[in-house]
Each structure stands twice: as C-alpha cells, then as structure tokens.
Design brief:
The complex is a heterodimer.
Chain A (H helix, E strand, L loop, with lengths): L2 E8 L7 E8 L4 E6 L5 H9 L6 E6 L2 E2 L4 H6 L1 E4 L11 H11 L4 H14 L15 H13 L5 E5 L7 H16 L3 E5 L3 H7 L2 E6 L2 E6 L1 H8 L6 H15 L1
Parallel strand pairs in A: 3-8, 3-9, 6-7, 7-8
Antiparallel strand pairs in A: 1-2, 1-4, 4-5, 9-10
Helix pairs in contact in A: 3-5, 8-9
Chain B lengths: L1 H23 L2 H24 L4 H14 L12 H4 L8 H14 L2 H14 L5 H26 L5 H21 L4 H18 L6 H19 L32 H15 L3 H19 L2 H27 L3 H4 L4 H30 L9 H25 L1
Helix pairs in contact in B: 1-5, 2-13, 3-6, 3-8, 7-8, 7-9, 8-9, 11-15, 12-13, 12-15, 13-15, 13-16, 15-16
Classes of the chains: A alpha/beta, B mainly alpha.
Amino acid sequence: MVLEINQLTGGYSKEPVIHDISFNIKSGEIIGLIGLNGAGKSTTIKHILGLLRPHSGNIKVMDTAIETDVEAYRRHMGYIPEAPILYEELTLREHINMTAMAYGLTPKEVESRKEPLLKRFRLEDKEDTFPSHFSKGMKQKVMLICAFIVEPDLYIIDEPFLGLDPLGIESLIELMISERDKNRSILMSTHILATAERYCDRYIIIDQGRKIADGTLNELRQQTGLSEGTLDDVYIQLTGGKRHEQ
Amino acid sequence: MSSKLFNTRMEEDIKIRSYYGKFIFNSHFLVFLMIAGGVLLYTLLGLRETLSPSIYIDTLCALLMAAVLQPKYRTLLKEADMLFLPPYEKRMTAYFKRADIYSLSLGLALPAVTSVAVLILLSIGHNLTSIVLFFLMAVLLYFSAFNIRRLSVNTDWKKWAVTAVLIIINFVSLMLVLIQPYLITLGLLFIIIFTVIMKKSSFKTLSWLNYVQYEKEALQQYYQTVSMFTNVKRIDKAFKRRRFLDILLWEPKAEKFNKKYMYEYLFYRSFMRDHDLPMIVLRIIILFFITMFWIGNLYVSLIFSLFGIYLIVLQMSQIYTAQAYLLWPKVWPVSRTYIQDSYIRYSHKVVFVITLLFAVMFTITHPDKLYYVLAFPVWGYILNRVLSKAIYKKERELSD
C-alpha cells in the first residue's frame, strides 16, 4: 500500500473535524477525494502531510508512520496546495533547486527532469523570473513543476484544476496519467466532478467529517441505485439528498 | 457612533504600540539612549562654548527641524472599510476629527527631542526674540504640515512629492526667520499657497482607496521601524531583486546540492533580496559611522559599534523567523535541525562581515586603538549564538 489511513480522527483543535476515516491507496491509482466545502477534505490532507496531529488513528505512507521516521515518511510524498505558496524572493529556477535539494535529487537529475516539465507548462523562458510576478495559473504551474520533478510515490493535490487555463488542465491530466502508468499514485481533492469522473480510478466521498462512500464509479452507482448516474448524480444522492430528507 | 468606532481602533493601536514599546525600550536600549543622549548633550554644550555664530549652524538647525517636522497621519482605516463605510461617509466627520487629534499626538516626540538640540545650537549668536520666533514658526509649520498631509491623502499627489515640498517649505521658512524675523510673513505665505493648492487638488468625495492605502503604508512603516529592534509578526515581507547582488548568491556545486545546504541557499537570497533589510543595515552603519566620526570619543565609538552590531544581529534573526514558520519547511523531507544549522552558518558569515565593517569604521575614527576591534567579531559571534538559541527555544515552545 502507498497510503494507509486507519480510523483517523482529528482536526485543528481539541474538537475533531474528521471522524474515524479509513481508506487505502494502492500503487498506480488516481483517487478522488470528494466532499462539500467544509466536509473535511483539506483537514484529511493536512493530517496525511503531517501538518496536524491525529487525535486517534494512524497514517502510513509506504509502510512508514511519521512518528517512526519523519524524513522517510515525507520523502514519498509531493504536495500541491490549493493556492500556490511561493517564496517571493526566489526565481523559478531557485524554487526547483530548493525542492530538488530537499528531496535529494542530483543537479543532473534536475536538468534532465525539468526541461520536459517547463516545456509542458510553457515556462521554459521564465526560469530566471520571480514567480511572485506570475499570474495565479502560472504560479500554480510552478507548484506542479516542483511536485512532479520529485517523482514521489504519492502525489497529494488539493483542487488541482483551480486557476489553470484549459491547456494547463490538459497538461496536468496527461502528466497524472503518465505518472499513474509509472505506478505512482495520486490523491486529489476536487469539486470538478466531470473531470474527476473521467480520470479517477476510485472515489472517497467525505461528508460532515465522515467517510460516507469509497469505491469505483460502478460501485458507487450500485450503492446509490443510480445505475446510469454520473458522478455528479451519485455525489448529490450521497450528500445533498440525505440533507434534503433531514 | 463614528467616534466610537475610532476609539475602539485607537485602543487597539495603543495596545500594539505598548506591546512593541516594551521590547524596544528594554533596559539595554534605555542605557544606550541615556549614554548617547548624555554624550550628545555634553558635546553640544561643548560646541556652544567653542563655536562662533555662522550661517552653517543656522542652516543645520533649519535643516534638522525641517526634516523632523513631518507629522504622521493615521486614520486607522481598514481594507474592509472600503466596502462598508462609504454609505456612512457623511457621518464620518467625528471619526476623522478623532483621527486628527490622535495623529497629531503621535508625531510629537521627534520634533520635541530635536528642539532641545536645536535650542542649544541656536543660542550661539541669536537673541531670545529670534529663538522664540523660530520655535513659533516650527509649531505653526507642524500644524500646517499636518493639515497639508491630511489633505494630500485625498488627492493625486504622491507621498514623496508632498514630503519633499514640505521639507523645502519648512527649511526656507525657518531659515528666513533666522535671517530676518520680519520674513516670517513669507513663510506664512508659502504655507497658505501650498494649502490652497492641496485644497484645489482634493477630490470632491473621499477617495476610500487612497485613505486605506495610505493607512496600510503608514502601518507597515511603523512595523518596519519596530522591526529594527524586535521581531514583528504582522509585517508584510516584500522582496526586490537587486541584480548587482546576484553575483554574491552562489549556485551550489554538486557536493553542496543537498538538504544540508538548501536553507543556507535560501537565507542568503532572503537577505539580499529583502526590500528593507539590506538598506536598514546600510543606514545603521552609515548613521553610526557619522555619529562616531563626529563625536570622536573612544568610549562612545566603542558603545556605538557594539550597539550597532547588536541591532544588526537582531535584524538578521527576522529572516529565520520569517522562513521557519512557512509551509514548505513543514512538508519537505528535511529535519528542522538542518534549518537551524543553515541559519547559524549563514548568520555567522554575514555577522562576521558586518563586524569587519564596524572594525574599519572604528579604525578610521581611532587609528591608534586598533586592537579594540578584535572584540567586535567575538561580540557578534556571542550575540548571534545567544539570540539564535532564544529563537529556537521560542520555536520549540510554539511547536509543542
């Protein structure tokens, strides 16, 4: 297993935001983490990254828990936040260098890996520019380049398509598929269900801090009785429908 | 209603000022101020005995006063006010009146302290009437400069342009009073003309964007001043690329391209590209050098050098604080000890270079006491270790 979450309960303060969440990710899977605003997706991601301490339960990445070896735990993960977080004082090249140094890449590996990524995201002539002067979409591309250059076992992407132009979205999807083909895994939280439906292998649906469904689209269709339903229909049935009844 | 809103904000502002005031005016700084003040007073009184009246002394006095007669204007407006307050614009008179009174009180300390030094210098060759008229004019200039500054916020005038014109008016007006007391009328005329220009340039309604932006800059300026003495959490860090400094920013070779050196790589860039930090360091060095050279007293130079190094080391630590709490150091697979090790390596090198600069300044001022400068790098090293440990301790406590 690339990621194993067992009975995770946690949050920002003593009051838990997520309750008893368990799921796994195997190698070569793209998993959609889906939920309404405030459902607990970002909190779950922060727990996986080790930014929050679980109240109970445990998380393992490539069989390593963060308490056992924090560096080894993090080395297997690449993270792309929802809003780009950049060093205003560093150029694009320096951002790539910092990430590469953190993950133990050699200068040669950096050179060979960065060219195709810069080309793919059309930033090859911007290496010496401060990304803080870029548009929001371009900043997000910097985050993507920094994560994909590392080639980790698990990518954690929070709202991957936010702020990207159509070409950027296409490039990202191609890249995600190519990484899956290399047996790497991706956990992405998203609201754009139509895109998620086309590329995710499995979905974990969170509502009010609890996991309410986990499975492929067909399994979710069976669970909701919507045999021809889209992911949108399934999602509404699982979350909105229940709330309307209340 | 609107005055109540201002009072609440004023209380918040006073709380922030007293919070940082405790850190700035700590016992070390108070001792330094007392020594520096005493030495300055002693030197000025000595000069009073030895100097004879001259146009240069008058020019210096007028220049000093012209520079410090720059009242602050703080409205304490917030960004959200742009959305919520415009419908109440006509009922905001009480708010702005309270803001005027508060702002006037904020800018008094510097002109008051400078007045003492100027008074001593003016007593060389000027009679009482002339001195009284000079200070009357200074008071008048302070209030009129405040009025002009306040009006200028609601115009297209740039802040630096208003400041430049005010300094010129202040200087010319004060200088004219010293040359011929009757010329005070000319000074008054300048003030009236500039006030009329400002009134004519004012927009018909409040430019909320201008007011909010002005307040934001004033607040940042306050935090920047405070950050010279202590860490300020709320300051917005701004960076600027100085290409001519890029030559000092090494690209790591293969053996240093790893987690052990990555933060050192970052810290040098943060320092060199920080919008204010290199300039603050430069200003401290130049200001202290001028003072040391002017006073020429061995012990004063020694105290100023050690205090200057202390101020700069204190400044350096804000880079660690700014970087250590960001997201990436918590996500990257790099132990926090590497951040601390990198910081100590980087800061020791920078502090060493700065102590060398102070050593050169000290040697120029007191060439016969060269051996004193050996203490500077040691002092810088000890300070850096002690202050860094304090930051790490605070960081540990926060993470627990």
